[in-house]
């Protein structure tokens, strides 16, 4: 009996995304389709899937698995030999860790605290690396690439998987050690990253550019630090004597992107103000992501002198150029750009508008806060999410206008304000959110209750308890769950408060 993709995912524990990815690669194509074009998998397809998963456990890449299953001339022995080499390399890394631990063990002054710290650091870095690789794979699978580009990326990434794991381990270790990206070690990591990107993408700048954009906007917050480190390390690779100004400006138009990167680096390192028009002009036309990032770095190095050029470019007709300009302004974070960014949040291009919102969130400027508050309750969900993140950056300063927004006539604005207050995490919002539980719109009530669940303090707990007695059974169920989970999340906070009060009482006595 044939089954649909959802049922196959449920029975096997694989995700629907994985099965679709196998289909796109030609690794596991469903034998049939329903009238509505849903995939149907036959018993033979399930047998093939079993073979795929079995070969994966041996360490074979997906292209290798496809060849093993479909190519009679495929040399399985050679594939196994290569993977034995990979395993031996990993064993070597583990032995290095053992030697490090033994060195700690043999040092008289080192105790269990240092040993435990080393083990914890190793485990923490390994988790971060594994998570980054998984998220990167998910992002790559969702890129708007042709089938040929996607297959090429998949193949090259699998071939370089161990190199990526090693490099990411070094990057996250550098972050743990607080290593500056501008240091010699940071520059080396940046150079290795750039070289590996070129290898992984088969030196195809359009793929590298798509990946760079996706990482910038879609990496989770806990992984953004690694991407920021690498992005800042790349521009720092300006070794050797700088070129003359004339030669460097000319090289901004060179057909080799590596020459263009070097030109941007040299201009930025020397802070050649006379080259600003050329740098910014190229910024609006450069097709390669990494070159654009280096151009951005060079322009940011010029500081406020770059502002007039950037603001003029922001008025141009090309959305890609405007996006790069807003990105550059967000790094300069000069309050003088607040007015221009305020206009940019109404840009006809959604990505430019969202980037402008993000840039305003980086500025500790009253005008920026007022502007962003005007967008609370926007009908577009992605715009609301970006606004939420930006407003949280203002911390306590955002509390009064958000509390006022809870009383706004527009229900969507009230619900969005409640959502942001939950993210803000300020216990002072609890009374107003408790009042919002009586709102005449269910979405506002639910947003207020969810926000209370994120707040510490007795006021928030009383508000949740009050919600367990409302008429709506859905809200009651949510409130009961929040109240049941609350001791687990806030017990330590309450203990600290009790201890503080007890100490205060003893001091008064």
TrEMBL record:
Would the keyword Coiled coil be found if you checked this record's keyword annotation?
yes
Domain annotation HTH merR-type: ranges: 1-71
Which keywords has UniProt assigned to this entry? Coiled coil, DNA-binding, Plasmid, Repressor, Transcription, Transcription regulation
Matching entries from PANTHER family are given as: MERR-FAMILY TRANSCRIPTIONAL REGULATOR, REDOX-CYCLING DRUG-SENSING TRANSCRIPTIONAL ACTIVATOR SOXR
Q: Which residues are in coiled coils?
A: 77-104
Looking at the UniProt entry, the stretches that span the membrane are none
Keyword Transmembrane helix in record = no
Q: Name one GO molecular function term.
A: DNA-binding transcription factor activity
Q: Spell out the protein name for this chain.
A: HEAT repeat domain-containing protein
SMART domains (UniProt xref): EZ_HEAT, HTH_MERR
Task: Cite the Gene3D superfamilies for this sequence.
Answer: 1.10.1660.10, Leucine-rich Repeat Variant
């Amino acid at each position: 009996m044939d089954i649909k993709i959802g049922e196959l995912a449920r029975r096997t524990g694989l995700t629907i995304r994985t099965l679709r990815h196998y289909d796109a690669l030609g690794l596991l194509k469903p034998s049939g389709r329903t009238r509505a074009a849903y995939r149907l998998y036959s018993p033979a397809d399930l047998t093939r899937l079993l073979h795929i998963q079995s070969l994966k456990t041996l360490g074979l890449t997906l292209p290798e698995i496809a060849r093993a299953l479909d190519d009679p001339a495929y040399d399985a022995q050679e594939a196994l030999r290569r993977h034995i080499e990979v395993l031996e390399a990993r064993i070597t890394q583990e032995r290095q860790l053992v030697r490090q631990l033994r060195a700690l063990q043999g040092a008289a002054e080192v105790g269990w605290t240092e040993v435990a710290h080393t083990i914890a650091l190793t485990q923490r870095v390994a988790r971060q690396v594994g998570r980054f690789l998984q998220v990167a794979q998910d992002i790559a699978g969702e890129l708007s690439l042709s089938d040929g580009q996607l297959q090429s990326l998949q193949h090259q990434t699998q071939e370089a998987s161990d190199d990526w794991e090693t490099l990411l381990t070094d990057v996250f270790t550098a972050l743990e050690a607080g290593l500056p990206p501008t240091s010699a070690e940071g520059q080396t990591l940046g150079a290795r990253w750039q070289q590996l990107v070129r290898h992984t993408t088969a030196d195809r700048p359009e793929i590298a550019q798509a990946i760079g954009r996706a990482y910038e906007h879609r990496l989770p917050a806990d992984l953004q630090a690694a991407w920021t480190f690498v992005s800042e390390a790349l521009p720092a690779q300006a070794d050797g004597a700088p070129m003359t100004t004339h030669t460097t400006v000319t090289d901004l138009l060179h057909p080799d992107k590596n020459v263009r990167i070097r030109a941007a680096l040299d201009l930025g390192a020397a802070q050649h103000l006379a080259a600003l028009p050329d740098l910014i002009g190229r910024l609006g036309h450069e097709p390669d992501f990494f070159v654009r990032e280096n151009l951005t770095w060079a322009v940011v190095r010029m500081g406020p002198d770059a502002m007039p050029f950037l603001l003029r470019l922001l008025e141009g007709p090309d959305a890609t150029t405007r996006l790069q300009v807003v990105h550059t302004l967000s790094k300069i974070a000069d309050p003088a750009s607040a007015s221009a960014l305020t206009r940019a949040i109404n840009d006809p291009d959604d990505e430019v508008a969202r980037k402008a919102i993000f840039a305003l969130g980086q500025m500790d400027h009253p005008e920026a806060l007022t502007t962003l508050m005007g967008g609370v309750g926007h009908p577009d969900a992605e715009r609301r999410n970006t606004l939420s993140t930006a407003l949280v950056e203002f911390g306590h300063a955002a509390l009064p206008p958000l509390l006022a927004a809870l009383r706004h006539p527009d229900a969507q604005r009230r619900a969005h304000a409640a959502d942001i207050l939950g993210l803000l995490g300020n216990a002072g919002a609890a009374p107003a959110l408790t009042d919002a539980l009586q709102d005449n719109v269910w979405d506002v009530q639910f947003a207020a209750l969810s926000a209370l669940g994120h707040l510490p303090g007795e006021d928030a707990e009383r508000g949740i308890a009050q919600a367990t007695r409302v008429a709506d059974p859905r809200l009651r169920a949510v409130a009961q769950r929040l109240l049941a989970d609350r001791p687990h999340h806030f017990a330590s906070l309450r203990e600290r408060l009790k201890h503080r009060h007890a100490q205060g009482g003893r001091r008064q006595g």
